[in-house]
């Protein structure tokens, strides 16, 4: 009797909680798009458009969207997938999207392809957010059909990529659906707009096929990323992608930003790290007009209120002396005593986001491993920066980087040898 | 006046290629810290190979292999990853055209073991027919100076470097277009033989720097890396 009463009491007190939880789940479910994402259009006939102009547009979009870059393993067949992405929740391998009917997408209908690009869900289940479908959802129907038509011309490769190796709890069944509930918020779909202003056209390229926010946006818990993530700067595997806005890009003269995106070394400043890959694989294929539209859009963005580490510790004098000495010995020959660079050859460091930006990781990597801007028609024989990993000790690298960041940036927290060890590493 | 003009024209004519080479040297500053300012290798470095004077076809193949993952060395792959074939071709020709380095320094650090040195020399000059290992000189040339356009010279390479290359072929991380003769040879040799060869090669002093033999002066005994071989020779 007593026990039954108690159970009843417990139920009555818990009921509102349970109801609340259920309502919350329903709300989350609705906010990630409701049932629509899970209704994959499976049984539609495959008919591939053979219109040459459409295929050409698809090829261009694929180049800007870096489909091949992400869907090709180092040294592997194009579009056969298998490139590994190290994420906070385990390793994800990209899918085979060649025209193979069994292992690739060669049996998909146009509707299923559109659905996968818009919602990240296909016959193979809910896809991981490494696939930037939040951005690709912003491509109009004709653009997706163009991609579809182009991918059907990609030689079939009959191999399956390795299975994802996810950590707990991402390896549990339904984890990707759970992730969607918690973090995925689709942006409003775009209907084909003959966008009016350059800024609007630029916005569509940046937010859609260009997926710039995949790196330049800040990711939240479990690599969550809203489609409307602002370009406030972000850390991705081993690199920092700086904030993109009118203020951070002020050091590019009008027109120079568009040139940079198409692979010019502007006053010696080419891209390095992941941005070099992006330009080599995608952005060098931008038309001059598209690049100018992107520039116009980026210059309209306002800086976000900087949530910077305000605890600027003073750099000890002997560190500073060591840093100054190392700079004169190893760097000044190319970048100049005053850090102003050598026009046309070596970039200025005084305006480099690696030095003035909030994150020291790019500067550490550059000093350790050197750099080469991508070779493009705009910059066919780039200058190269030597690596110093075997000449400078971690302590010396730390002193050098901290000194330069204090001299030309606002310094932030000085780095030490442990940071250098933890952040140093290059991936194929 | 005239002779002067002629002279300045001549100077210009010769100056242009020299300037171009100098310019590429400046662009390739990253390479010089490991491979030496003129691709001559680095004194005292036990690992970094020299590049100067090696056949251009060979160098191009290596640069592409680092970029495409057919040969692995993280820092090489890092610098190559966004270079296109045209730049790599220019780089290969640049280093191939530099004078072969001054007489190879012997890089060996310890005196050779006479028995092993003998074994190495036999393999290099005669191979081992019982294990189907061809003589190294059949491809790399009587003087081991290499053969245009794509077989490198071997004398004076650092010992650890040569051992690592054989390790790469055996493990499949250094690959050449099929038939990959060096991988076959590497798998047929045993570890002590590889060590002996590497040590012997690193211990050789060259009196004169040598250029690879001109293309066609030597016909490799077997198909290898897509190069012409004796079986493929068709008599006119």
Please characterize this protein's 3D structure:
The complex is a heterodimer of chains A (428) and B (236). Chain A is mainly alpha-helical. Helices cover 41% and strands 6% of the residues of chain A. Chain A has 17 helices and nine strands. In chain A, the strands form four sheets. Chain A has a three-stranded antiparallel beta sheet, with no helix packed on it. Chain A has a two-stranded antiparallel ribbon with strand order 3-4. Chain A has a two-stranded antiparallel ribbon with strand order 6-7. The N and C termini of chain A lie far apart (69 Å). Chain B is mainly alpha-helical and 236 residues long. Chain B has a domain at 3-97: Cytochrome c-like domain (Cytochrome Bc1 Complex, Chain D, domain 2, Orthogonal Bundle), CATH 1.10.760.10. In chain B, α3 packs across α4 (74-80), α6 packs across α10 (191-202) and α8 (159-171) runs antiparallel to α10 (191-202). Chain B is globular and about 50 Å long. The interface between A and B is medium-sized, with 29 and 27 residues.
Largest interface: A-B, 29 and 27 residues
Element string of chain B (H = helix, E = strand): HHHHHHHHHH
Termini gap of chain B: 55 Å
**Oligomeric state, counting identical vs distinct chains:** heterodimer
- Low-confidence runs of at least 5 consecutive residues of chain B: 1-19, 232-236
* Average pLDDT score of chain A: 89
Supply the CATH architecture of the domain at 3-97 in chain B. Answer: Orthogonal Bundle
Distance between the termini of chain A: 69 Å
Mean pLDDT over all positions of chain B:
84
Question: Could you say how many structural domains of chain A there are in total?
Answer: 3
* Global Rg of chain B: 19 Å
Strands ordered across the widest β-sheet of chain A:
1-2-5
Number of strands of chain A: 9
**Molecular shape of chain B:** globular
